[in-house]
Amino acid sequence: MEKLIQLTMSGVANGAIFALVALGFVLIYKSSDVINFAQGELLLIGAYLTYMTVEQIGLWWPVGVVVAVLLAAVVGVLIEQLVLRPLIGEPAISVIMVTIGLSSLLRAIVGAIWGVTPRPAPQFLPRDTLTIFGASVGVDKIWAIFLALVLFVLLTLFFRFSREGIAMRAVADDQQAALSMGISVKRVWAVAWAIAAVTAAVGGILLMSIFGGVSGSIARVGLLVFPVVILGGLDSIPGAIIGGLIIGLLQSYAGGYLPPELGMGEVVPFIILLFILLVRPYGLFGQRFIERV
Amino acid sequence: MQSGTFHTNYAADMALRPYWPQRLRIALVLVAVLVFPWFADRYWLNLANTIAIAAIGAIGLNILVGYTGQISIGQGGFLAVGAFSAGLMAARLDLPMWLTVPIASLFTAAVGAFFGLPSLRLKGLYLAIATLAAQEIITWVLTHGKLLGIGESLSIPRETSNIFGIPMTAIGNPDFAFYWVTVGCLILTVIFVSNLFRSRTGRAFVAIRDQDIAAQVIGVDLFRYKLLAFATSSFFAGMAGALTAHYRGIISWERFTIDTSILYLAMIIIGGLGSVSGSIYGAAFMTLLPAFLSNLARALSGAVPQINSYLPYMQQGAFGLAIILFLIFEPEGIVKMWRNVKDYFRLWPFSY
Lengths: 293, 352
Hints:
A: mainly alpha; 11 helices; B: mainly alpha; two-stranded antiparallel sheet
C-alpha cells in the first residue's frame, strides 16, 4: 500500500510534467502541422536558463524563474521565425528533419555553454516529506502537480476568453477560414511556439527541481512526448493531459513493480505507443482522420 | 557534347547510363576507387570504409524513405540487428564473414518487415512515430543484453573476418583488406538498387510514394509492397550493420541509438531523397564533416588551446546546422547542387 501510494504520487508528478510538455507539442501540431522533435531540448533550455538566472547571475528565485521562462518564450518565437517559417509547404519529412536538426543544434549550444557534467540545481520546492496513509511522499512532487494544474487552468482560460486564444482555436479548426476572417496565422504560429517553449520550460524547471540537478538527460523526456500524444490523440489538448498522466503512472508502476534490472520504466511507454498505433492510431481523444483523394 | 536524346534502338533506350559522358564519369570513378587504397594511409582508408558502410545503410534507408515515401526513424535499430546477429554468429558459432553478412542481412530484412507491419494502417507522421518506438524497443533489448547473452559489448574474433577461407591479414592491414570488402559490397548494392527502380517492384515503390491511393487503384498491392520496401531497406541496413561488426571487431549498443537513425536520415536528406548517388554523397558528407572539424580543431589547438574541449559540441552543432541549412536553401540535397553544376556546363553559353 505504501509503495502503491508512493509510486502513484511520483507517477502523477511525472505525468503532470509530461502533460505540460505534450501540451506544447500538441499546440504546435494543431496550429501548424509540425511534429516537433526538439520539444525535449526546449525543456533543457528552460532548465539551464533558470540555472543561469538563479545560480550564475544570482537573482531571487521567483524573479529568476520568470526571467528564464520569458527568455524561453523568446527562443521559441525565434525558432519559429528563423527555422520553421522558410519551410512552409515543404513535405512532412523536411519539417520533421528540420526539428531534428534543431534539436541537435540546441543541444550543442547548451553543451558548449554549460558542459555535460550534471550541476546541482537551485532548490525552489521544499524537500521535506509528508505522510499520507503511512507512505512518505515528497512535498516537491505535490508542488509539481499543483503548479502544473495552475498552468493548465491558466491555459484553459487563455483559450476560452482571450482574443489570441480564440484566434488559435480558429486556426486549429480551419486554417483557410481563419485566414479569411482576418486572423494572422503567422502570429498564431509564433504564439504557439512561445507557449510551447513556456510549458516546456516550466516542465524542465519542475524536473530539475525533482531531480535536484540539471544535466543533458532532461532532454530524454522529449521522446516520451510521443507515447503521450499518440495515446491522447495527436490533436487533442485534453488528450495530452490525460495521456501524460496515464503514461506517467504506467511508467512509475512498471519501474516500481517489475524487476528493476529490466528497466521496464524506459520501454513501457514505447510498447504502449506501438500498441495504440496498431489498435487506435488517432488515440483516445484525437480526431478520426478520413482520407479523400 | 550531348545535346538531346537520340536513341535508335531499344538497347540504347534501356541502358542504365546511355550517354558517353556518364560512362566516362563512371569509369573515372571506378579507376579512382581502385587506385585510392594503394596511396592512402590508414586514416584515409578508415574514413573510406566508414563512408562505404554508411553509404550502404543510407541507400537502404533511401529505398524506404526516398523512393517509397515511408518515413523511418528506426534505421539505427535495424543496423543494430544486423550488427549483433552477425556478431553473435561470428562469436558463438565461429561462422566466417562471407556467411554471417548475408545471413544477418536476411535476418534483418525479416525483422524490418515485422516492424513494417504497422505501415498497413499508418502513414506519414504516425508511421514515423511507430518506427521511433521500434528503435527504442530494439535499443532496450540490447541494453538489457543479458537476455541475449551480450554484455556491455560484443567482440568479434578477428579470424572470422575471412573471405572464403582467405584471412584478411593475407591481403594487408585490416583497413586495406576491408576496403575491398566494404567497397565491393557498396558497388553490388549500387548496381542492385539502381536496377531495382527500373523493375516492376521498384516502380510500385515509387507509385506508393507519389500517391498511395492512386497506386492501389491501378493494382499495386499496397501492403505487400510496403512490407517489401521495409524488408529491402532493412536488408541493406543489416548488411551495413554486419560489416560494421566485422570491421570494428567490437560493438556495443551505443553505436546504434536513435542518434544513429537521425544521422542516416540526415545523410539521405543532405545527399538527396530518392537518389542512389545522393545517398553516397550524403554518407561521405556526414562522415567527413566531423573528421574535418576534428582536423581543424587540431590545427587550431596551438592558437586556441581550449578548442578541443568544444570539439564534440562543434561537431554536434555543425551536424544540426547542416541539416537546417540544407533544408532551407537546397532541400533536394547535394545531388541537386551537382546537377546544377552539370547543367551549367551542358547548356553553356545559354542559361537554359
